[in-house]
Amino acid sequence: MIRSFNRFELKYLLNTAQTGAVSADLLGFLSPDRHGEGGRYALTSLYYDSADLACYWAKIDGLKVRRKLRIRHYESAVALDPADPVFVEIKQRVNRVTQKRRVRLPYATAQSLCEGVEPDDVERADAPVVAEVVDMARRFDLRPTAITSYLRDAFVGGELDPGVRVTFDRDLRYRTGNLDLHRKIPGAHLLPPDLVVMEVKVNDRVPIWLTRLVSHHNLTLVRISKYCAAIEAGRFRQAPSRISSLAPTRSYVPEEARHG
Predict the structure, then answer these.
(1) Number of separate domains in the chain
(2) Is 74 exposed, middle or buried (0-12, 13-18, 19+ CB in 10 A)?
């Protein structure tokens, strides 16, 4: 299991017609992720924050270094059991680089950890992340704040582009109540149903073919945080069309992430 990694993440907002066209072109370079059926699977994430929403405001205020804590569950047809494995993840942003650190734990243990309770038995490789989660939970008095869920179509690179991953997230939903992952509650739509969030994830540079593909389809980068959008829609009652985190930035890909 990969416990940590650094990468660039670039996000675009597409409609369903664009998604089909871009996906078809990607198949010439990438393959569907082996997880799920044909690369498709369902994800649900439970986000933790302080009473004053410190993680939310760190993103909105554009802090160069910021972190957030979540429990991530890859859905199945059956309800989540306390003994079922989930991921506890710290997602950190340092300037334009995204860093992720995670541990895999039973759901009940993951909940306790995110409340600041250190597990009795921790693998040596997991100890640094566990200690960081405990520190975050205690220092900021974190508590469950929002849940997001969506269907993901994932494409991954082969031998020539092993660090490239492109995902399409559709049917994005959220809830700010009933914050337990075992409850299979769909929640409200976070975005209009015909919109899809495309994410390009690379370890270093975007391949030239992918830069050209993005340019060919005239895709435009957006600033979007699913967690922040859930807070704005659920707590601040802003309609999805007014969510500030969906503001477009610039077309194509930023210079520091381009090939060569």
Answers:
(1) 1
(2) middle
Strand partners of residue 147: 46, 175
Give the Cα separation of 58 and 135 in Å (integer): 18
Residue 83 neighbours by CB distance under 10 Å: 9
- Cβ atoms of 175 and 54 within 8 Å: the answer is no
The C-alpha atoms of residue 6 and residue 216 are separated, in whole angstroms, by 28
Residue that has been written with the tokens 């910021």 in this structure: 66
pLDDT digits (tens, 9 = 90+) for 90-116: 999 998 889 999 999 999 999 999 999
| CA angle 92–98–104, rounded 5-degree value | 65
Residues 228 and 148: their CA atoms lie apart, in Å, by 10
Q: Which domain holds residue 109?
A: 4-257
**Do 10 and 164 form a contact (C-beta atoms < 8 A)?**
no
Residue 134 belongs to domain with CATH number: 3.20.100.30
pTM: 0.89
Could you tell me which residues come within 8 angstroms of residue 90 by beta carbon, excluding any fewer than 6 positions away?
67, 68, 69, 100, 101, 102, 129, 132, 133, 136
CA 159 to chain centre: 25
Tell me the one-letter amino acid at 117.
V
